[in-house]
Design goal:
alpha/beta; TIM Barrel; eight-stranded parallel β-barrel; 12 helices; about 40% helix; binds flavin mononucleotide
């Protein structure tokens, strides 16, 4: 039988498939289901910075949208922090796979001290799901990026468990962010998160939410950046996320150099049991290629292994255009 074991953030996983932070990991029962379906690890649904600040009595929100404030207040009061710490400790008791906690944040503020409680509750690692929307034309790109680094430095002072930063896909130079986080001893990055994107309902004249699930074609962007990061920032662990809808996509990301592969939309659509099918695909593919462990092929198609990425892409691009004249 193929050995699917992998190491991520210093943790030993029985296989590289992780159930992403979402409603799929919001209760002990769901975490147990993920384990039974074969998950190598789970990332619990995110606790929001606003929830922590609310309980600390320091949440001050202001927005042009009164509805947004109402939603936020209702959300933070019904999803309290104590419940989250219980979820961590109960999940740890209930399953033997690693349990990674997650915080959604937009600043390096007072909430950071709370990370120590997450560690005390028994989380194996923390995934920091940072969402900083660059909405101020007067702020420089560097000053936005600096927020990530300050956050990493502060968190590193508070916890000793491993940290992964779950990043959005829209940096000018994502590789620099990854490298700078590595310099600050962040153990891993998740490439990439998929954020809420607004749409307009032009009948009701309201801002509405769009499709939350990804498409299989979203994989391409993930594949490119995982392949590049694995080559250029050698020692940081990469967990690939967004657009993984089948076992083939997972194999591609491992070939690109990912340590682990996170799955969310595909499990919402097909149920957690779908992980079994994905794992079976990976095993069958490994067998067909004569691989007995994931380490034998991880990164075999990273950008370093396939030659100069610029030449590679440029030539494909030229081929595409010349064949569509
Ligand atoms: C319903 C739903 C809830 C989510 N909740 C969270 C969350 O709490 N924290 C987080 O970091 N990501 C959250 N995500 C993002 C997923 O973890 C994942 O990064 C994203 O969906 C891309 O992966 P996919 O293509 O496998 O869906 C959520 C996604 C969905 C669809």
């Amino acid at each position: 039988m193929a050995n699917l074991e992998t190491t991520y953030l210093g943790l030993k996983l029985r296989n590289p498939l992780i159930v992403s932070s979402s409603g799929l990991t919001s209760s002990v029962e769901r975490v147990k289901k993920a384990e039974a379906a074969g998950a190598g690890a789970v990332v619990l649904k995110s606790l929001f910075e606003e929830q922590i600040l609310h309980e600390a009595g320091s949440l001050s929100v202001s927005s042009d949208y009164p509805e947004a404030i109402d939603y936020l207040q209702a959300y933070v009061t019904s999803n309290n922090v104590e419940n989250y710490l219980n979820l961590i400790s109960e999940a740890k008791k209930a399953v033997s796979i690693p349990v990674i906690a997650s915080i959604n944040c937009m600043s390096a503020s007072k909430w950071i001290d709370f990370a120590a409680k997450i560690q005390e509750a028994g989380a194996d690692a923390i995934e920091v799901n940072v969402f900083i929307l660059p909405n101020d034309p007067k702020m420089t790109t560097e000053s936005y990026e600096e927020l990530y680094y300050v956050l990493a430095e502060k968190l590193k002072k508070v916890v000793t468990i491993p940290i992964a930063f779950k990043l959005g896909a829209h940096f000018t130079n994502p590789l620099r962010i990854v490298e700078q986080l590595w310099y600050r001893k962040v153990e891993g990055v998740v490439l990439f998160n998929r954020f809420f994107e607004p749409d307009f309902d032009i009948e009701k004249m309201r801002v509405v939410s769009t499709e939350v699930f990804s498409n299989p074609s979203d994989l391409r962007n993930t594949l490119r950046w995982v392949g590049m990061a694995a080559e250029k920032v050698k020692n940081i662990d990469i967990s690939a996320s967004t657009g993984v809808h089948n076992g083939e996509a997972a194999v591609k990301l491992l070939l690109a150099g990912a340590s682990t592969v996170q799955v969310c939309s595909a499990l919402y659509k097909n149920g957690p049991e779908y992980l079994k099918e994905m794992l079976a695909y990976i095993e069958t593919w490994m067998k067909s290629k004569g691989y007995t462990s994931v380490n034998q092929f991880r990164g075999a198609m990273s950008y370093g292994k396939i030659g100069d990425p610029a030449v590679y892409e440029r030539s494909q691009f030229m081929k595409y255009y010349s064949s569509h004249e």
